[in-house]
UniProtKB/TrEMBL annotation:
InterPro entries: Peripla_BP_I. Transmembrane segments: none annotated. This is Branched-chain amino acid transport system substrate-binding protein. It holds the Pfam family Peripla_BP_5. It comes from Allorhizobium taibaishanense. Residues 372-402 are annotated as: Disordered.
């Protein structure tokens, strides 16, 4: 069988402020490539072109341009932060290439040059707040890395909080990669919020959780049952570098956890155990990059070409079987329908799922269909047509995992 040989840019930071996340993404992408290239029945062979921007957002654009110009890459699997995605975006738009972006982001974007396989706010922040606010209260304090992810998730969180009759008691930012968190802990101690929403990334997130643990040991009112840290992007790699006691009781949402009970996930874990050993605990960063590569390869095989326009149209016209579950990409927005899960962390640094939607949630990147209701109100009248503020409707309810 003749095989199509396709150069693919793998563009993640394996050094720098969020290097651990980048290494997981590269591991996931390379696991998929090894599997595809080792399958003699596959009509596609991928040639990975690895680049490490070192956590510098500006270098993402330069390296993406070099991959397209010098390596002949029409497809880029890459970027974790929104800052780096924004640097790649004009490159792929000019070149007519495709970026496969597989990580949670703040929404309010749709480009013909991007396939969005990561969750947007109606698939991460809204389910998280819908669970947390009725249980612990409507007064969050928000901390975030000082770039578009932190700003925009904070803005949406504020709108959700106010719609629920609550109040954001403070909204604070840190430079990406900073570990200077003492001032945040001091303000949390003073203002005593109901919970903390963390939009911190990489080593900033780990430093904050370590410092917060010292606070909750000193004052039990900040324990996880009273004032938990919640997040849409907290990952096992963030917990791995802190003490076991500091790892526990944090609530996060994701489209993948190692402990998700599904046939697709069971098959995938067994396959990865053969490659990485039985002790490798998989996380969303690894699995999302893996799913991006396999989705791309399956689409190229369908089309018989890596031409971006043909691949884009074919990718939005079929269903993919992935470790995330059945994956369908909306042709209107090029965002994937995804199944959100909620999980709580333990001392081992693992996240244990406790709620999931029964079926995938269609992405609503501009939040025009998905809305939040006040907890103390019955549903009000429908909003005027074209209004962006309504209630949490049109989304499958979260189901408690027994």
């Amino acid at each position: 069988m003749s095989r199509i040989s396709v150069p693919v840019s793998i563009l993640f930071s394996t050094t720098g402020a969020y290097a651990a996340l980048g290494r997981e993404a590269v591991d996931g992408a390379m696991a998929a490539i090894a599997e595809i290239n080792g399958d003699q029945e596959s009509s596609v062979r991928l040639e990975p072109k690895l680049s490490d921007p070192g956590g510098s957002a500006e270098r993402y654009g330069l390296m993406a341009e070099a991959a397209v110009r010098d390596e002949g890459c029409r497809h880029i699997i890459g970027a974790i932060t929104s800052w780096s995605r924004k640097e790649i975006l004009p490159v792929v738009e000019r070149a007519g290439a495709l970026l496969w972006y597989a990580f949670p982001y703040e929404g309010y974007e749709a480009s013909d040059s991007v396939i969005y396989l990561g969750a947007c706010p109606n698939q991460h922040l809204l389910p998280l707040f819908e669970h947390v606010m009725p249980k612990v209260g409507p007064r969050p304090l928000i901390v975030g890395s000082n770039y578009i992810w932190g700003w925009e998730v904070s803005r949406i969180a504020r709108e959700l909080t106010e719609a629920a009759g609550g109040q954001v008691v403070a909204d604070r930012y840190m430079p990406l990669g900073s570990t200077q968190v003492d001032h945040l802990i001091t303000e949390i101690r003073q203002k005593r919020p109901d919970f903390i929403l963390s939009n911190l990334v990489g080593q900033s997130a780990a430093a904050f959780l370590a410092a917060y643990d010292a606070l909750r040991r000193d004052d039990p009112d900040f324990g996880p049952e009273h004032c938990p840290v919640v997040a849409c992007n907290l990952c096992e790699t963030d917990l791995a570098v802190i003490e076991p006691a500091a790892r526990t009781g944090h609530i996060t949402t994701s489209v993948y956890f190692h402990g998700v009970d599904s046939a697709d996930n069971a098959d995938f874990k067994a396959k990865m155990a053969q490659r990485h050993g039985p002790d490798r605990r998989l996380n969303a960063t690894f699995v999302s990059a893996y799913a991006a590569v396999t989705t791309l390869a399956q689409t190229i095989a369908d089309v018989g070409s890596d031409l971006p326009d043909a691949v884009r149209h074919a990718a939005t016209a079929r269903l993919f079987r992935t470790p995330l579950g059945p994956l369908k990409i909306d042709p209107r927005t090029q965002h994937a329908a995804l199944r959100p899960h909620l999980a709580v962390s333990d001392e081992a640094g693992a996240f244990n799922p406790f709620q999931s939607t029964e079926r995938p949630v269609v992405a609503d990147p501009f939040l025009v269909q998905t809305h939040m209701r006040r907890h103390d109100d019955s549903p009000p009248n429908p909003p005027p047509q074209g209004s962006s503020k309504t209630h949490l409707t049109g989304r499958p309810p979260l189901k408690v995992i027994k």
